[in-house]
Amino acid sequence: MSDIPSPAKVPEHAVMQQFEVIDNSLHIGGRSLSALASAVGRTPFYAYDRTVMDARVTALREAMPPRLHLHYAMKANPMPDVVQHLAAITDGLDVASAGELRVALETGTAPANISFAGPGKSTEDLELAVASGVIINMESRREMERIALLAERCGKRPPVAIRVNPDFELKAAGMKMGSGPKPFGVDAEQVPAMMQSLASLPLEFVGLHIFSGSQNLRPQAIIEAQRKTFELAYHLSQSAPAPIRWLNIGGGLGVPYFPGERHLDLAPIAANLAELVETAAARLPEAEIVMELGRYLVAEAGIYVCEVVDKKVSRGETFLVTNGGLHHHLAASGNFGQVIRKNYPLCLGNRVAGDTTEEVNVVGPLCTPLDILGHRVTLPTAEPGDLVVVFQSGAYGLSASPVGFLSHPPPGEVLV
Ligand SMILES: *Cc1c(COP(=O)(O)O)cnc(C)c1O
């Protein structure tokens, strides 16, 4: 952060450095927050800064082995403008529904660079996937048979990969998505038999998808999981009906949200991957290696902005009641997979530092005690009309929130 008038007081957030503060106002996309709010025409709104996404992709490209392909996992933020921007600077897109696939195809990304994962794909999902020729990550033997039937009907031979539920876990992951009993993918030990059946179906086997977890901030855990991912791929390739041409190793790179969390050090992960990718060039010579990232590319680029509507004191605690809350930003309320509720980093965007500060609870307009954006946070003394900013809001924000709950209007959304 820069230009904070001292001796004014400002809460410290180690994770706000991606945005500038000028004349005590947060700036995003070259504009002060108040100017942006006027341009959007309403609060609350989400704003996503393309230069922050660019910086993440550039840092990854500089660190990672050049042969590694970088995909954007759209479910982190499916806003079409964001997807369009990321499609242009990454090597492909990963989708999880026909709806996401339509947005992905709209960007002009080649179907060969789009892959479709997700358990319980509907017939509509599969029909669009087969018709458009994207890589389908098959999540079960039954799904394989359904795809084969559709393929036969329309005389196609769609490219397919097997999504593997690995026999190891990504340790210390915020969300574990592999190992043990899981609804995702096919257990590694069942994959060879499935590959054998696949050989006689009208499907073009291209490779494997091995995704073990999400939101990890420990390089050693990621390194270990990636080693095991390649080992598993080598092992399964021995039973494959065709050479592995595509290997999606998942992602899992985390971003810091809470006090004490630090940015992931890419260097050791990149050094390890360089070795793994080089070995793979010999052992799976035809394979394109793909890393799929959602959160890491977009989370820090996004802010959620809401306006203070009321301020009141209840039995000694001050409440800032805003027009934004869990209906727009479930994750910041602590109700999207958090075990112990922690505050996302917040600031008062139109007055980052104040001559006076106070401890407040920032809450939303919903009639539920779950609607909290900040529990006992210190902010500059605020009044109705002031703008509260929630940082680290570019991933799993609006599209992961129950917008219909209590029938308030949806927020604005802009790419700046
Ligand atoms: C959710 C998901 C991702 C993205 O995870 P992030 O933590 O946002 O990077 C990638 N791949 C698959 C299969 C997913 O389900």
Textual characterization of the structure:
The structure is a single chain. The protein is an alpha/beta fold. It folds into two domains: 20-49 and 300-415, Lyase, Ornithine Decarboxylase, Chain A, domain 1 (Beta Barrel); 78-293, TIM Barrel, CATH 3.20.20. It contains eleven helices and 22 strands. It has helices spanning 33-40, 50-63, 80-89, 98-106, 123-132, 141-153, 191-198, 219-237, 266-283, 295-298, 330-333, and strands spanning 20-22, 25-28, 31-32, 45-48, 69-73, 92-95, 114-116, 135-138, 159-165, 175-176, 186-187, 204-210, 213-214, 246-248, 288-293, 302-314, 317-322, 346-348, 357-363, 372-380, 387-390, 412-415. The strands form four sheets. Strands 4, 16, 17, 18, 19, 20, 21 and 22 form an eight-stranded mixed sheet that branches. An eight-stranded parallel β-barrel has the order 5-6-7-8-9-12-14-15, surrounded by six helices. The chain has a three-stranded antiparallel sheet with strand order 1-2-3. Bound molecules: pyridoxal-5'-phosphate (PLP). Residues 73, 75-76, 94, 117, 211, 214-215, 250-251, 292-296, 395 line the site of pyridoxal-5'-phosphate.
